[in-house]
Amino acid sequence: MTKEIIKTDVLVVGAGDSGMMAAAAAREAGAKVILIEKENKIGLMRLSNAAINSNAQKRAGVSINKAELVEYLASFAQHNVDQKLLNIWADNSSETVNWVEDNILKPNGAHMRSEPDAMVTSPIYHGFPTENDSTIDDKSYVSYGAWFQEWIINHNIDLRFNTKLVKLIKEKNTVTGAIVETNNESYQITATKGVILCTGGYSANKELLKKWNPEALKKNVYNDSPRNNGSGITAALKVGALRDQEPAECIFDRGLVPIGTKTDEMFYQTETYENWLWIGSYPFLKVNLRGQRFANESVPYQFISNAAAKEPGYLYAMIWDSNYADQLEKFHMLGCAKFGFPGYMPSKQAFINDTNQYLKKGLIVKADTIAELAKKLHLPEEALVKTVKKQNQNYIDHIDHEFGKEFYRMSPINQKPYYGCILGGRILGTLDGLRVNEKMEVLDTNYNPINHLFTAGNDSGGFFWGSYPDRVPGLASSHAQTFGRLAGKYAAKN
Length: 494
Ligand SMILES: Cc1cc2nc3c(=O)[nH]c(=O)nc-3n(C[C@H](O)[C@H](O)[C@H](O)COP(=O)(O)OP(=O)(O)OC[C@H]3O[C@@H](n4cnc5c(N)ncnc54)[C@H](O)[C@@H]3O)c2cc1C
Fold this sequence. Notes:
One of its GO terms (biological process) is steroid metabolic process. The protein is built from 14 helices and 18 strands.
C-alpha cells in the first residue's frame, strides 16, 4: 500500500558510479535531489576512469587525439553505436574526472594520477593512455566512495538507503515520479524535474540474460556485479522506452572454475571477487576442453571468452610451467592486467602468492608430466601433450604458426612441475541499455524523448556493442560518471 507522497525536483535511482555523479550535478545546478539506493551502502566508485586530456594527463604530458579515439571506439563496435554519444563522452570526460579530483580527492589529500603506459600499440590492437587513477602516493589506489558520500550529505542531498525503485509513474508523456519501497513499505516520490535511472544494468538477472544476451551465460560462470538486476531498464520499458536490440557486456577472463564443473551448473555472484586469478588474463597457453588450442591468447580480455563460447563445453584450461613468474613482466599487459598493478599486484611475488592460494584450494593443479596434468584437469592426455609440444616448437621458432601471437607474449612449457586450471568468464556488467539522446533523455519506441526520464551508466545504451574495448582503460566507469553528470545537469534544467 502506498502511504505517503514526498516531493523533490530530481529523483536519482541507484547510488553507484553514474547515480552519485548525477545527484551531485543536479544538486550543484540548484535542484532539490533525492538519491535512493536499494542496498545499505553506496556502490563501489571505480578507481580507474578514462578521460581525454584531463588535468592529471596534462600534468603527465599525456595527450590523446580525440578524433582518433572516437573513431577507434566506433570501429571496435563496427559502428553499431551512436557516434554522437561517443563524441559527447569525449568532450565531457575530462571535465568529469577533473571535477572528482577537485571536489572529492583534493580536499582529502588525494589526486588523480595519469597512467601513460597504455600507449602501447601492438600490430593487432591499439591502446590509449586514457586511465586516471585515484591515489595519494602515486603507487597505489585510494578509494573515494566514502568521501563522495560525505560530499552528497554535506550538500543536502537526501540519500536513502534500503530504498528500491518499484515502478515509474508516467502521466501523458511525462514521468512525474516513482513508487519506491523501504522495508516492505511503499511510498511515492514526485519529481518535478525528472527521474534519472542509474541501476547499473542487468548482469545479476539470469532470466533477463537468457532473454537479451543468452551467449553471456555460455561465456560467464561468475557475475561480479550482484546488485544489478535490471530493475531500472525494466521499469523504463514499462513506460514505453526503447532499448538496444543487441547485447554488449564487459567480461574479465579470470574466473577459476572447480575442475569437473559444467558451465550451466555455475553462475556464482560475488561482490568480493572470490576465485579471481590475476594471471588468468595473461597470454599463457589456453586450450579447449579437448586439449586443443583455439585462439590467439594475446587479445583483449573478453575475446578469449568469446572464442571459448564457440568451443565444446565453453570453458577452457590454462597451462603454464614453474618459470611462469619470470615471464609476467615481459608480456607487458595493460589496464587491469598490468604487471605492477598499483596497490594490488605490485610485484612478481604478489602474483606468486595469488596463484599459490588457489593451488592450496585445489582450483589450480600441478604435476610433473603434461599427461598427469591433463588427467588432473579432466582433459584428453594425448591431445594436451601434442598441443604443448607444438607450443614449445612455436617458441623455439619465434613464430606462432597457428594463431600469430607476438613473440614477446609467448612462453615455453618445459620446466616441471607444470600447472593448470580451468577458466571461465566473469561478467563485470551488461553494457546494452535504454536508448538515449544527447541530453541523456530516454527515448520511446518512436525515437522521441520521454519527458523527464533520464538514464546513465549501464542502464543506458547506444554506446557499446558486443565486447568491451579494454584498451581504452577506465571507459566503463567514465561512461557512467560522465553521462551521470550530464543527466544530472540536464534534469536540473527542466
Ligand atoms: C570488479 C569490477 C571491476 C571494474 N573495474 C573497472 C575499472 O577499473 N574501470 C572501469 O571503467 N570500469 C570498471 N568496472 C565497470 C564499472 O564499475 C561499471 O561499468 C560502472 O560502475 C557502472 O556504473 P553504474 O552507475 O551504471 O552502476 P553501479 O555503479 O553498479 O550502480 C548501480 C547502483 O544501483 C543500485 N540499484 C540497483 N537496482 C536498484 C533499484 N531498483 N533501486 C535502487 N537502487 C538500485 C545498485 O545497488 C548500485 O548501487 C568494473 C566492474 C567490476 C564489477
